[in-house]
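Researcher: We're teaching a course module on how sequence relates to structure. For the next exercise, students receive a sequence and then see the predicted structure as tokens, so they can try to spot secondary structure elements on their own. Here is the exercise chain.
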Amino acid sequence: MACTAKVTIILFLCAAAQAYCHAATDHPGTCNVSDIHVTEVPTGKVVGGQPEYRVTFDNQCSCPIAFIEVQCVPYLPSTEPVDQRKIRYVASGMCVLNDKLPLSRGSPVTFNYAWKTPPSFNVTSGVPQC
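Model: And here is the predicted structure for the students to work with:
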């Protein structure tokens, strides 16, 4: 009986150690800008004579990512106002996302803009917050 209890305790400790090691691998070193997915879809609306698009930035990493810079060359064109708290042009074809607040998994940043062709929003940098 005592031997069975010892084996049970050892198995429990091994399982706990394995779970801890698995959780420890989900840290900032494993998060990077490729974890931020960008989608642009037409809304079907026309604003100022231009088609409207909905852009979504979604973080697939468990760590929030802050200070996200996005390439938006040569500027952020739109015939409708874009929410500057969500994306803001700064200079040299670069924008900042979410007013430098962290982008967390399950809380995407979404905004609409209208222009003849959708610009390509390439994420260039971000800082994991874990």
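Model: If you want an answer key for the exercise: The chain has two domains: 1-28, 31-128. The longest helix spans residues 2-24.
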